[in-house]
Amino acid sequence: MAKNYINYLHFVLFFIFFSLIPSKLTAQCAGTDNVNELICDVTNPIYQSVNLFSLLGGSPIPGGTWTDDNNLQGLDPSTGILNAQFILSGGEYHYTYTAPATSGCTNNKAVVTITIGAYVGVGSEATVCNENNFFNLFTAFDSKVMGPHVNGSFTTDKGQPVPRTIPIGQYTTKTTLNFIYTVPAVPACSPDTKSTNVQVTIFIAPKIGEPQDLELCGTTDLAAYTDLDLFDRIGKGDKGGTWTGMGLTSATDHNINLQELFDANGPGVYPYTYTVLALPNSNICANKSATVNITLEKRLDFTGSKIEVSKDICESEIATATYSAKITQGQDNIPNGKYDLSFAIVGPGVSASDNVRGDFVNGEFNFPIQSSYFKEVGEYTITVTGIVSTTSRRKCVDIFNPFSSVLTIYPLPLLTNATLTALPVCQNDIATIDIIAPQLLDGTYRISYNINGDNLAMGETAEIQSVGGKASFTIPGNLSKRSGLSVITIYNITNITNPSPQCTNIANVAGNLYVNPLPNALTVIAAVKDYCLNAPVTVEISGLETLTNVSISYQLSESNISGIQTISNTVQNGKLDFVIPAELLLNTGSTKITLLNLTNTVTNCDVDLINITDDFIINPIPPAPTVLDQNFCKVDEAVIANLEPKGTQYKWYNSATATTPLAVDYVLKTEDYYVTETSAEGCISEPAKVSVVINDTPAPEMNETADFCGLANPKISDLSSKTNVPSTVAWYDSVDGNLLPSTTLLVHNAIYYGYDLNETTRCLSENYKEVKVSLRDCEVAQYDFFVPDGFSPNGDGVNDSFVIKDIEFLYPNYTLEIYNRYGNGMYKGDNSKPAWDGKNYEKSGIAGGVAPNGVYFYVLHFNKDNKPPQQGRLYLNR
């Protein structure tokens, strides 16, 4: 009794402990602050990648972001990696970590404090040229290591403060300066300031004067320049330099004969370069050079030059024509190159000047002229007023006199207000067209015309002779083959009286030509479909074009023979239909119809028809199908497609006079049906009658409930015995499912579907009986169960769990509790969770730790018939 009380006390304390634990703990999701992290030797490469996250205290949640409270460089806010060498002064710096928003913590920030020790850098010796004017002392540090912190200050070696950038342009001799750089101390790393020495040596750059270029006309202006001293073309500077350029004979030569230079080499730009070297043994300051450019030009002579303008045009080309001109040099060769040309245009309605830039190439200069200058019929004079090279300095006066060319725009021939007339002709006759054209000048012309309407011809040509505004031309008979109204349109006229250019003008002069028609036999087509015997046979005639009333002669041959038959009928849209008299089609088999003649009954013009035939077949009627009456089961849901005979040639009806066949999925009833057979040729037989009977069987009924004892291993045959038709009932595992053999064991709570089979009609019932089986109907007095006293959950597949076999059939609502020797609950089971696997389960049901070997206690609650719980012990041995 005392032991049971102790176990109960343990259980109560355990329950109180877990009840006091809050459902959600408040945590420092960002970790805790790191008060100070020292980086005194910042030049160490390891400080190029400082992981701030690893410096946080506590248990921070990863995935947050970092912020630099000092707004410096070097921090990756997403990874928290800091490059401490990016911080350019010593001191204390703060970085804040913010935990992810999804952490749910109220205190979601923590700070890492880092102290950077002072770093003064590595001083070096720098050399610089005074032409740079200023020098930044920070560039004098050794670049192979990290640069110094920037919060220090510079002094001379005598202690005088100096700025970081010093002036050096005022020095005129080589000078060496010494400086001291000092950065403040960071006490956390060292109480002393840091200093280093920097030395700067200033070199002096050479000086050179300002060059003065010279431009002269080589043809006329060089008499005074036969001994030009080049030093006269450059300002003050260091002496002792050297000149280079064409015509100089040595390193010390500085005089040049420009007349000889021009005579030997012609016009051009001649550069002369003066170079002063820097101080010996110094590569700090560069050598200095200056160039004097002497330009010598040649006078050009355009005497004898000519211009040719392309080209004379007709008035019709004014809107689209483009114009160009070609200048050919005269007695003097004009150098290749780019030139600016000025010219004037004088003509009808225009007096203008223009400029263009182009190239002289091998004595020719080609250039375009704007078409806007040429807007009227007449003559235009194009005069060249000046030509100058684009590279010329205008030092020479060229020899030039204006020269010209003439361009002519010719007028167009006119058929304005002209008329065309023609007498009617028969089809295929030659037609004469008379022209009256008051504005057409006398002369010879070529006209282009189209024929539209009932006759069609494009691009036809003819020559006419205009005298006093009158002319005529003929149209060949092959262009009036079609009857009806044709429109003759002259759309183009060319004056061929004069040589090139032969000016062509558009025209729009039209006149009517009437052609009496003949029926068109070439488009007529006769078409007759295959028919069944005694059906009306229709002949379809097409291709009658615009005819309105016609008569047609025809005859039949082969299986059905007739003499010449004639029909008269109206035509609609070029087609007509007629029915061959039935007395001419008394036989089955192939028949040919041949059209003989087509007459337009409006004009009485006719044409014989050649090879206008069509073959057709008169097909026989098939006999009525041979059929039998038929029976079906209702459960099979038989449709028209299940009837015999089968095949697409058979059509089924629900009356002998019905015209619309039943669909293949029409569900059959107990009634009469009628079937016809359609031959391959589409001929339909008389209907045959079929009587159909639909049989049905009632669903089985249960005589008693479907309750069984599972320990008796009941089968399907046991379930059948409880129905009203035990010998014919059939059971399935689902509707339209699998048939279950009579030896199949029943399953608790499973649903079975019963159908009855009529042994006479062999029809299965359409409806079914749905039964849910219970295997819990066991008498406790007839059966017993066994509680094992141990198990070995070692995973060997044998006795791995503690299970009370078959108890669920006797006590379906039982519950099982297992405790350890301290009274702590280990497991709770029932019918849905019958096996304990030897693990410690808390009240929540979540798997806990593995239970150790030893003795455990169970309490079995039967929950049936007020039977008291059963207690016992069991041994767990792995």
Architecture overview:
The chain is mainly beta and 878 residues long. The protein is built from 4 helices and 57 strands. The strands form 15 sheets. It has an 8-stranded mixed beta sheet with strand order 20-22-25-24-23-26-27-21, with no helix packed on it.
Write a brief structural summary.
The protein is mostly beta strands and 878 residues long.
Radius of gyration (CA) equals 61 Å
Please list the strands of the largest sheet in the order they lie side by side: 20-22-25-24-23-26-27-21
Strand content is: 35-45%
Helix content: under 10%
Largest sheet: 8 strands, mixed
The first-to-last residue Cα distance is: 31 Å
Find the structural class using helix and strand composition.
mainly beta
List key phrases describing it:
single chain; 878 residues; mainly beta; eight-stranded mixed β-sheet; five-stranded mixed β-sheet; 4 helices; 57 strands; 4% helix; 40% strand; disordered N terminus
Which secondary structure elements does this structure contain, and how are they paired or packed?
Elements: H1 2-19, E1 34-39, E2 50-51, E3 65-68, E4 81-82, E5 91-98, E6 109-116, E7 125-129, E8 134-136, E9 153-156, E10 161-162, E11 165-167, E12 175-183, E13 194-203, E14 214-217, E15 228-229, E16 242-244, E17 255-256, H2 258-265, E18 268-276, E19 288-297, E20 306-310, E21 313-314, E22 323-328, E23 337-347, E24 350-361, E25 364-369, E26 378-389, E27 403-410, E28 419-421, E29 425-426, E30 431-436, E31 443-453, E32 457-466, E33 470-475, E34 484-495, E35 504-516, E36 525-528, E37 531-532, E38 537-542, E39 549-558, E40 565-570, E41 576-580, E42 589-600, E43 605-619, E44 630-633, E45 650-653, E46 671-677, E47 688-695, H3 716-720, E48 729-732, E49 751-756, E50 769-772, E51 790-791, H4 807-810, E52 815-819, E53 825-830, E54 839-841, E55 847-850, E56 854-861, E57 870-876
Parallel strand pairs: 1-6, 7-13, 14-19, 21-27, 29-35, 37-43, 44-47, 51-57
Antiparallel strand pairs: 2-4, 3-5, 5-6, 8-11, 9-10, 9-12, 12-13, 15-17, 16-18, 18-19, 20-22, 22-25, 23-24, 23-26, 24-25, 26-27, 28-30, 30-33, 31-32, 31-34, 34-35, 36-38, 38-41, 39-40, 39-42, 42-43, 45-46, 46-47, 48-49, 49-50, 52-53, 52-56, 54-55, 56-57
